[in-house]
Amino acid sequence: MEKLYTAVVTAKGGRDGHIRSSDGVIDMDMRKPKAMGGEEGYANPELLFAGAWGSCYLGALGSVGKRDGVDVSSATAEVHISFNQEGESSFQLSAELRVHIPGVDLEKAQKLADTAHKGCPYSKATRNNIDTVIKAV
């Protein structure tokens, strides 16, 4: 495996802290979401993870579309990342990716979406680790 890029982000203070990337592109306060006793108006790990996974996933979908001759340039991925309580002090993430490919029927869109999920690096990283649903909408 050849490393093409390495992102470096330093986190301090946990869910009520701060993150900063080595290049300064990301430099922001983090807070627990309001639903977990935090404040509105701040980023949290689940928001960032959803955005990162969605962006990466659409890259994989673009590769699949190009290979299969399907225009997916207007596709969207609405990524839902849930923070779930398993036990008294145990937590688990779950995910649902709702994939919309304009002009493509649902059956074909689902096949494209599933294929992209097989190749997306974020999907690979989470496979068999968190419950994930890929749903063409």
Can you tag this structure with a few keywords?
137 residues; 6 strands; 2 domains; 3 helices; alpha+beta; N-terminal domain of TfIIb; three-stranded antiparallel beta sheet; GMP Synthetase, Chain A, domain 3; single chain
Brief overview:
By secondary structure, the protein is an alpha+beta fold. It is built from 3 helices and 6 strands; from the N terminus they run E-E-E-H-E-E-H-H-E.
Structure notes:
With 137 residues, the protein is α+β, with helices and mostly antiparallel strands. It has two domains: 1-43, N-terminal domain of TfIIb (Single Sheet); 45-136, GMP Synthetase, Chain A, domain 3. Helices cover 32% and strands 29% of the residues. The protein has three helices and six strands. A hairpin with a 5-residue loop joins strand 2 (18-21) and strand 3. Helix 1 (45-68) crosses helix 2. It is globular and about 45 Å long.
Instruction: Tell me what portion of residues adopts beta-strand conformation.
Output: 25-35%
CATH architecture label of the largest domain: 2-Layer Sandwich
Helix content: 25-40%
Q: Major beta sheet, specifics? A: 3 strands, antiparallel
Structural class: alpha+beta
**Poorly predicted regions:** none
Number of domains: 2
What's the N-to-C terminus distance? 35 Å
Provide the spatial order of strands within the biggest beta sheet: 1-2-3
H-E order: EEEHEEHHE
How many DSSP-defined strands?
6
CATH level-3 fold name of the largest domain = GMP Synthetase, Chain A, domain 3
